[in-house]
Amino acid sequence: MFTAWMIGVFLAVGQHLLYSSLHHQAIEDETAKIREVLYGRALAYFSKVAFGGTVIIVYRQRLWKTLRQRALSIWSIDQLFLATEDPTLFFNWETILKAPILTVIALILWLIPLATIIFSPGALTFGDFIEVSNVTINVPTLDFSAESTNDWRTPLVLPDGTKKRSVMFYNTTDVKSEADGWFDYYDQPSLDLTRVSIMSVYSLESHSLNRQDARQTSCGGNFNCTYTTSFVGPGYKCEMVANGPEDNEKLRDMGAPFNTSALVPEGKDVYYAQVDIGDYKSPQAGNLSAQGGVPLGSIPDDLGIFKYEPVLWIGYSINSTEKLPEDSPLAESWTARYDPHIFRCIHYETRYTVNWNYTEPFYTTEVTREYLSPIVDTNFTKLENGLPNVQNPAPESNFVSPHDVALYKKTAAYHAVGQLMRKFLSGRIELEPEFPGPSYPRVFSQITQTRLVSNVTSTPVEDLPAQLESFYSDAVLSLFSSPQMLVVSEESIVVNRTRVQSTFVYDAGKLWGCYAPVILLTFIILVFGMWTIWNDGTTWTVGFSRVMVTTRNQTLDDISRGACLGNNPMPLELMNTKLQFGVLNEYSDIEVLGINGLSEVGHCAFGVASELSPIIKGVPYAGLNRKARPRSNSEGRTIIRKKEKAE
Ligand SMILES: *[C@@H]1O[C@H](CO)[C@@H](O)[C@H](O)[C@H]1NC(C)=O
Ligand SMILES: *[C@@H]1O[C@H](CO)[C@@H](O)[C@H](O)[C@H]1NC(C)=O
Ligand SMILES: *[C@@H]1O[C@H](CO)[C@@H](O)[C@H](O)[C@H]1NC(C)=O
Ligand SMILES: *[C@@H]1O[C@H](CO)[C@@H](O)[C@H](O)[C@H]1NC(C)=O
Ligand SMILES: *[C@@H]1O[C@H](CO)[C@@H](O)[C@H](O)[C@H]1NC(C)=O
Ligand SMILES: *[C@@H]1O[C@H](CO)[C@@H](O)[C@H](O)[C@H]1NC(C)=O
Ligand SMILES: *[C@@H]1O[C@H](CO)[C@@H](O)[C@H](O)[C@H]1NC(C)=O
Where along the chain do its domains lie? Predict the structure, then answer.
């Protein structure tokens, strides 16, 4: 009884452990999945068997006690004996009223499978689970210093045979790199870089380009992921310097190449850019060979030196949409006021911090820029009249010479990226006045092919300085779309990954919600059973042998006459006869007290209540193996018959 209960508890714990191990496990194989589910159900079934076993043993123990205490109709006795298979005892008032404990125990027995077999496997379900993990994997990053150590003569070849591409092309003083004091100097942006920047600009998207499988490669598989990378690259730092004609003095002091008089409404241009002043000369000298730009005579002192990085001077006018007063002289040409702005952008070495967010189906980047230092930190000297001397940047100590190879190549790489962008910005857009009209923009710049120009008015967007900064950083980040570029490298970083997975989901609360009442009730029944055994002083069970030995009573022979086949239906009269289990009063009181001692007391059997006396604990009643007094005690039989007649 106790062992069965313990086994039941162990099986329930086993089911819990099995389910716990399956919790949030994604099992791809369907058969394996079904197998795990069946293991769980098997455990549930066996625990039902075990708990049921405990309850049945107690039930049977109690059954005999009840039969001893009360006379019940044979009908009810049948039902009590068959309680495990036949639930009709729950509809019988006699069993409910005369054997309430037994009925309750039988009811619990019937309910155990409901909790264990039917409901407990429901604690394990199948559902979407968002797996979150932090892993350290290699993600792409940019490293412009890779250009520093690159030599075009010995390109870096990847294991799959692709050559890493530089962002620029070089000229050199010696193709064979043998002559004394040879050096390479910058020629122009490479075709790969040109392709990437043109694609980025022409995409008109307000985000950088990326490779098709960027999410898979960056997240290390089919995940959603976020991570932050930081790298150093080129960036334009823009600063508004004039917001109207009143700032023109300031502009002149700053050495601006133009002022608001060039811009609408004073001038013709709604956009005007000077972005090439002081640019790196191409060709660098007059006597370069067609092969690698090797100087044919002596090498000029300043060959290839970066003396100045062009500053972007950009002016644009914005339609304020405020109507001009009638008496304004400008009202002859315009309906609304135009506000001219001029800003300046300096090319900086910039620390990018990018929050990548690869979440299907899109990806987003959040870029913060920290401007470190100007790429070439020189300014024009001033002429006597206060204007900048564009031929003479200073200080010379900040020039970047090709002899300083590492710095030079990195600077050249930044310069190349900037050079391509400047190409799109240079030029101007004229705007025809509204009167006499019609008003239309006349374009002398590639900027209209970019997202910096409004698609509604065909004039520059309002927040042009900020847009230009991000426009340029998008172009830089678009290098990620071209992993064969030398500057695209890898970095080991902690990536926050999530993945939606179809997994087992185990709810321990549900499982114990099923098992706790079962374990508790069966434990109470178990304790009750043990108390009953102690109280009875013996254990009981049911079975044919028990029926055989407990029905050796002449009275029963008499009343069951005619029903010996046991076929259905039994005579109603017989079924309604009330029987009880007890000590048959076969012997007279004198005999019970017995000259032959205690071993000779009467035998226990079913009978009608009047011929029985209660079984007393500890009394050794006549057993089968102790055939005591022969049953031919005619005197006893007579007594019984007399009693029967009396009833
Ligand atoms: C603005 O530019 C125009 C033309 O270049 C020039 O004539 C004018 O003096 C400038 N104004 C100031 C305040 O510098
Ligand atoms: C590099 O050499 C080529 C071939 O001579 C020449 O066309 C080009 O202008 C040179 N580049 C520079 C920046 O001097
Ligand atoms: C400027 O904006 C006003 C108000 O929206 C509009 O009426 C006018 O046509 C605009 N000017 C031009 C040149 O588009
Ligand atoms: C990433 O993008 C998704 C969808 O756009 C958003 O729900 C999520 O909050 C973002 N994650 C972070 C860390 O910004
Ligand atoms: C160049 O000019 C800028 C802005 O006027 C200034 O911040 C910077 O220090 C100057 N650089 C040098 C090397 O003087
Ligand atoms: C026009 O520009 C706005 C703002 O830049 C953008 O949201 C919109 O999609 C553009 N329209 C088209 C048709 O490209
Ligand atoms: C990524 O997130 C989106 C939106 O939350 C979701 O629909 C998608 O299934 C997720 N992808 C993966 C691989 O988990």
Answer: 1-127+504-538, 144-486, 543-647
